[in-house]
Known about the structure:
Layout: H1 2-31, E1 36-52, E2 57-72, H2 94-122, E3 124-127, E4 131-134, H3 139-143, E5 150-154, E6 157-158, H4 162-175, E7 179-184, E8 190-195, H5 202-207, H6 210-214, E9 216-218, E10 227-230, H7 235-239, E11 246-250, E12 253-254, H8 258-266, E13 273-279, E14 282-288, E15 291-294, E16 300-303, E17 306-308, E18 319-322, H9 326-353, H10 364-377, H11 379-397, H12 405-418, H13 424-454
Antiparallel strand pairs: 1-2, 3-18, 4-9, 5-6, 5-7, 7-8, 10-17, 11-12, 11-13, 13-14, 15-16
Helix pairs in contact: 1-2, 1-10, 2-9, 2-11, 2-12, 9-11, 10-11
Amino acid sequence: xxxxxxxxxxxxxxxxxxxxxxxxxxxxxxxxxxxxxxxxxxxxxxxxxxxxxxxxxxxxxxxxxxxxxxxxxxxxxxxxxxxxxxxxxxxxxxxxxxxxxxxxxxxxxxxxxxxxxxxxxxxxxxxxxxxxxxxxxxxxxxxxxxxxxxxxxxxxxxxxxxxxxxxxxxxxxxxxxxxxxxxxxxxxxxxxxxxxxxxxxxxxxxxxxxxxxxxxxxxxxxxxxxxxxxxxxxxxxxxxxxxxxxxxxxxxxxxxxxxxxxxxxxxxxxxxxxxxxxxxxxxxxxxxxxxxxxxxxxxxxxxxxxxxxxxxxxxxxxxxxxxxxxxxxxxxxxxxxxxxxxxxxxxxxxxxxxxxxxxxxxxxxxxxxxxxxxxxxxxxxxxxxxxxxxxxxxxxxxxxxxxxxxxxxxxxxxxxxxxxxxxxxxxxxxxxxxxxxxxxxxxxxxxxxxxxxxx
Length: 455
């Protein structure tokens, strides 16, 4: 059921984002009087098709939901009737061709602004950024953070939830800049604390929780060790665990909450354990052996193949909400889109220069998982997910790689400088290079996805 939810959320998300991207090309092309032959969401066999408009444009929904395209009248792709030559894409002035190609990525960024605006208007509810415990000699301890502190702002941005705190700090980690926090202590006094994150990297964050790396244990709502999902063919599944089971003890030692269960299981990789369960008001015991899983940092932990409902009821004293009026939401949406665009470019730059690992890249499997998780949380979380992916699509499509929109824009800039189009043979070589790069990238991200699933 969870897998089906992820697949549906992925198809919905990609369908929305691809449609908006291709509509950018379509809309500007129509403004430039280019004849549109086909508007396709997806590739491969058509699942649905209809013709609309005076030009008989064919609108298609295809079987493979990993992209889309707008096919325009073009002499390079077939014979064009003399009466329609003025409507062929290749006959249009350089400025119009540039605008048509640029419109796709630009519409992705516009969509991100709209999604963030709606997200802030609807309001995001999460766990209030209250510090539970601080690890001695950690980055947080050296900054002077203490149990009971509430982080009310990071830099000049207010923070109502831990999610907001984390997303801002990640950007600072990429830049390698110190993080200035405004903190309200348990007595109500407000002070400034500075986190020295010079020793942190993107790879550190990928290998474990950002807050854990900082030495912060958030104050969390109670999270009982109640099973939400059981992974097929896992130790838990083979032992007969079911959704709704509450694990109350491991080898006779009481389990206080989910986090205590995780800690005990992780330390028992490959060792038989006895779990005490509560099911239908009755207690029973099962035996199983946690499988060994290797984390990205190389450490090995035990896993039994169960997940918990990560969205427990949040008590009022721990609930944080970020909600703003329409104009404030729009302003925040514009700023957030700009920040995420720059962050995406900086992360890509660090990966290219070797300062960050390619393991930080995610592919369609991970995106499907994130889509499912965000959709399950609520509309605000799903809007935030759509905005992040839309920014990524917009920025990546602007990279000067042949086959991407950015590659075409690069050719147009060369044409502008030299006064004539880039030759067909050169473009053909560029397409081969671009195809090799994209296939290599897809191989890396799919490998990363599979490694995460197996890990």
